[in-house]
Amino acid sequence: MPRTARLRPCAVARKLPRAMPTPPTNPALPLPVGAWRPDALVAALQVSGLRPMQARDAAKVLLNAYFRDNLDAEAALARVPPIQARHVAPLLAEARPLTQVESVVAADKTRRILWQTHDGLVIEGVVILADNGQRVTLCVSSQVGCGRRCAFCETGRLGLVRNLGADEIVGQFRRANRIWNDVRGALPAISNVVFMGMGEPLDNLDNVIDAIAVLTHDWAYGLSARKISVSTVGVAHKFAEFFARTQANLALSLNAPDDARRSQLMPVNQRVPMAELKSALLASLPRGRSVLVEYVLFAGLNDAPADAELLHAWLAGVPARLNLIPANPGPDPRLQSPVPAAVWAFQKQLLDAGVRVMVRYPHGRDVGGACGQLAGAHRRARGQTGEAHV
Ligand code: SF4
Predict the structure, then answer these.
(1) Tens digits of residue pLDDT in 69-126
(2) Residue 4, in any domain of the structure
(3) Which of 48, 51, 72, 384 has the most CB within a 10 Å radius?
(4) Pocket-testing residue among 123, 143, 155, ligand 1, by greatest number of atoms within 8 A of Cβ
(5) Is 56 a member of any domain?
(6) What's the domain count of the chain?
(7) 58 alpha carbon – ligand 1 mean position (Å)
(8) How many Å apart are CA 369 and CA 225, to the nearest integer?
(9) Is 371 part of the annotated catalytic residue set?
């Protein structure tokens, strides 16, 4: 939903007793509680007449209750002292909860979760165990569908339906975190988030930045920004803004060694060819920060020794780590993964050339939860909903 759209006031606002004086009109839009950046909420409460310490206390109580204690908006507001709650309630729009439709566990314990939004659309997230179960990452969606139409991606076939609000992005973490904490036993909690689900995050940058601000705030989940990665096809004109507004990592999905093949795989390259992409990246990347470059390997298309040389040349001068990703089955049957020996040979050639490179093996491929496979709408339309595990 566009950030500027008007939202209905939260039901709690309508239920508060009328005996107390009404706070002054606040210029801030009402937002669902899950969409409020903590600093913005404190500022809005001060505008509404609370003293700085009161505003801070009210926001902290509300957000702690909502995120950490998992209360719904109404119960969270009930934790705020009544005098302050009179100021908080008008700032809260109706919550837009995600309803879990499906939770499917793969053989490698990757869990793909499908949610329905308040307006009946479907999005997916994936809980991934990495490093032999030592690290747990949630892959979130930033849009319903995607307008970038990469040839290897199921989501791209959906087209863009709409952006997700910050509350709907954080809501995926809120819901997945709860499921995961119920079943994880001795395994670690979710500590990392990757924006590699449905959608191009830089096409929804304001809401993605707001969601990161919530995820990293101590009153919500207190994640480290360094443990959050945002993957882009290369929306070059947004790079500088991204680096200026967040300390989260940028992952650049490159996937080809030259313009002809990248344009074939990723239409974005027709507007921003690889040389321009590299220049934009180097011009905006702050000193001391680096990027993750992702390169999906397709048999016979981009995995030859000459392709490794071209890739090495493109990476020259870019502070980057490289992830090689053997292709997952996607919408185009011609795009297949190389055999393991070819993947290792490609990696070794780059290692020998001094590139920091690792292979990222797929997680959750058997339940359609791996990179390029998220397409809940298609899957449900085909009746392939899988076996549900809650
Ligand atoms: S790979 Fe990412 S940007 Fe490309 S179509 Fe899929 S979701 Fe969109």
Answers:
(1) 999 999 999 999 999 999 999 999 999 999 999 999 988 889 999 999 999 999 999 9
(2) no
(3) 48
(4) 155
(5) yes
(6) 2
(7) 39
(8) 24
(9) yes
